[in-house]
Write a structure and sequence with these properties.
This protein has 193 residues and is an all-alpha fold. It is built from ten helices and no strands. The radius of gyration is 25 Å and the shape is globular.
Amino acid sequence: MLAAAVGTKIRSRTPVMAQHNVCEEEMELGRREAMVPAALLAAVSGASPAFAEEPSAQAALPTKISVDPYELLGIDPEDKKQDKKEFDMHKNYRQDTYQVVKHMKISGSIDKGAPKMERWNKRVKEEMNDWVALYRRQDAVVGRQSYYALYSAVNTLASHFTSYGPKFPFPNKRRARFYELINQTERYLEKNK
């Protein structure tokens, strides 16, 4: 059918295609034609074809902070009672996830030279480890989209701490993806997913 329209004979066939009377060129053209609508949609929406069905979650990055992160929350890092209240898991998935997200946002925005950055980042890493340890074995939680989004963000921040240590700020080139995952987590939590 395609060969007649183009006015050429197509002779190359593989054994499987010969059984179904399909030519290689027809198969190749069919694949290309199938990709055209997705590529056009992606070009119009500004997304890649793989993510064309979901709008981009690109949000403005928060500004870097150079103040003591403990002061932002109004807690004294020396007070064990305040530390426990702020950082310990409450065994309520939604509450614990919002708590970890809030602290990770601060950690991803701390600028070089901020006071108590190293202490903050060590504490946030402990909190992330506690969150993962508590929820990774709970079947009701593991299937949630918010869990996977935050788990990816935790891996991103934890790999930075492992590679560079808690003294160094999170790199600017990775912040966009990190905050995209954080924002996704918050959207999924709002939808109870």
